[in-house]
Amino acid sequence: MRQTASPTVRRRRLASELRRLRERAQLTMEEVGEQLSWSATKISRIETARVRVTPKDTGCLLDLYGLDPAKQGELIELAKDARKKGWWQAYGDLPTEYTTYIGLEAEAVSMRSFAPTVVPGILQIEDYARAVIRSALFNSSPGEIERRVEVRMARQKLLVQEEPLRLWTVLDEALIRRPVDGPVAMRSQLEKLLEVADLPNVTVQVLPFAAGVHPGTNGAFQIMEFPEPADPDVVFMENFTGSLYIERETDVYRYTLIFDHLRAKALDPDDSRRLITEAVAQFSRSL
Predict the structure, then answer these.
(1) Higher pLDDT, 157 or 98
(2) Which of 76, 105, 121, 237 could form a disulfide with 244 if both were Cys (CB 3.0 to 4.6 A apart)?
(3) Distant-in-sequence, close-in-space partners of 90: CB < 8 Å, separation ≥ 6
(4) pTM of the prediction?
(5) Options 1.10.260.40, 1.10.3720.10, 1.20.1070.10, 1.20.1250.20; which CATH number does 7-82 get?
């Protein structure tokens, strides 16, 4: 049994189902809003999972869409589950795009990750994470940075819980060589990668410089897979201006192919371990 539960995936599933039912009823968002005295913006935010829809509002929508009352109970319960709080909310206010990612990650059963510049957050040690977060949030208060570090460390429990997240990550050699927070922190971070790579649910590969140009030059991405067939795979990408979630099946398939190309070009896990071990020795010599 998974030790973490996420309302995020349930909210997205409910949103998808409500959108499907509206389209089946051949109603536009404007028509729904007019009949319920809601704004079309509210309908849009519900169908894109940007807000938590109440069970009462869910019932109003289901009545309007003509769903059999006997079949409404499951979606009403889903709406209740979607309104529950996630464990991360105990750490104070966090940006919506970040909590959405944490919620999806918490519910995923597997994740494929490509990281070209920094070690993925779920594999970072505390000092490395603090340096990376401080660099990205240079105008934030020390308190906010520490909350982010705490959340990042808490996320790592996913890899060692009763039913752990299956993680397959491809790391560009650049992030193995680039010093972050000095040689001591880098040596510890690389040792952490070697330790995590020993877990049966984790595969670590390094994409060497010798691989040359590759399909991942557009940046980091994660592909998350969920336990329920009703919840499609999601691709997550992040940049300076925001986050992007890709759910369309054809687009997710393209990223799956890209990841397959990257892991084919990367060193196998044993050779990757040797390269990381070599980098540990290099950072040790620089102390």
Answers:
(1) 157
(2) 237
(3) none
(4) 0.80
(5) 1.10.260.40
